[in-house]
Amino acid sequence: MTEINSAKQIEAIPEQALAWHREGRGAVLATVVQTWGSAPRRIGGQMVISGQGDMAGSVSGGCVEGAVVLEALEALSAGEIKVLEYGISDGDAFAVGLACGGTIRVLLEPVGAVLSEPLLAELVAARAARQPMAYCVNCETGANALHAHGYDERMRLDRSGFEPDGVTFVSVHNPKLRLIIVGAVHIAQALVPMAELAGFDVYLIDPRGSFGSIERFPNHQIIEDWPDQALRDLQLEARSALVLLTHDPKLDDPALQVGLASNAYYIGALGSTRTHHTRVERFLSLGFSQAQIGRIHGPVGLPIRAATPAEIAASILAQMIATLRLP
User: Most buried residue, 91, 165, 177, 274, by most Cβ within 10 Å?
Assistant: First the structure.
């Protein structure tokens, strides 16, 4: 049995399942559908098992994977859907960093027999295109479908789970969150690693070469195009946040115009209340409506009296998350 668990491959479980199935190796998709207590993986966590017992991903952080593999091989042979339930002891839970044990339910779907190849391929294509998708499956009959609409609350909260009927499980497949920062300034030096830890893919734009030196951003490549062109290339969408930190209208304003024309879920711009008032007047004169301009969080960040670059970065990230998660 081979275990494949790099961070990138853990995120690409449907892709791995499709690849193994098409290679003729067989594949079973295992999904955490319910938890009680201190479960190691959140609902929606996935792993895939090949017909040879290879696996990628995790449903329990290592507590029950061996048992899941054996059950998956049986499900693959029978071509039937299966729901498993495991109790995780306090000792096993402690070994994977939890304070106490819990219980998990795991859904097994053999690819081909239950989860058809065309449906899985459609899901993989949607994920590649950064299209939010809900995969719905009846855990008793195996009836399944993909939906691009109709589960707005689940999609906004990234919350997989059972519908009120108790048998229909909805697996949320959202594209990874993106943060695009304009301005390689001190606040960005703190915000980049914070946002990456929070699960964002971060893009940093600054055409001023001296600002984006490798010494200041040793692990990040700076996009040195003009912000408006770079943003058009990046194609802001509903899982994108845009933060403008240059404090220079020559750079910020063209970027804001692109941002306001997009459906980015968050737009924030650095500057004092007076600076933002002046910004509003400029954009009104350009023909933008109050409703459009009202999308700009300015001054950027939650009002927590942040003083240092790191504190300002923390307030920005908190505001980005609140905008995404709160009604």
Answer: 177
Amino acid at 226: W
Query: What tokens were used for 182?
Result: 């304009």
Q: Is the dihedral of CA 49, 54, 55, 56 positive or negative?
A: negative
Domains and CATH numbers, the chain: 3-173 (no CATH), 178-325 (3.40.50.720)
* Neighbouring residues of 72: CB distance < 8 A, sequence distance ≥ 6: 28, 30, 49, 108
pLDDT of residue 7: 41
265: which 2 tokens? Answer: 């879920």
Q: What is the band of 3 on the pLDDT scale with cuts at 50, 70, 90?
A: very low
Angle between helices 13-22 and 117-128 (to 10 degrees): 140
Distance CA 150, CA 136 (A): 11
Of all helices (H) and strands (E), which one includes residue 151?
none
**Do 25 and 77 meet the contact criterion of CB atoms below 8 Å apart?**
no
Q: How many CB atoms lie within 10 A of CB 220?
A: 18
Output the six-digit token pair for 178.
């993106």
Of 56, 54, 51, 42, the closest CA to residue 14 belongs to 56
266-269/240-244 β-pairing: parallel
Q: Mean per-residue pLDDT for 250-263?
A: 96
Q: What are all long-range contacts of 246-249, with beta carbons under 8 Å and residues at least 24 apart?
A: 246/182, 246/183, 246/185, 246/206, 246/270, 247/183, 247/185, 247/271, 247/275, 249/279, 249/282
pLDDT in tens, 195-241: 999 999 999 999 987 766 677 888 888 999 999 999 999 999 999 99
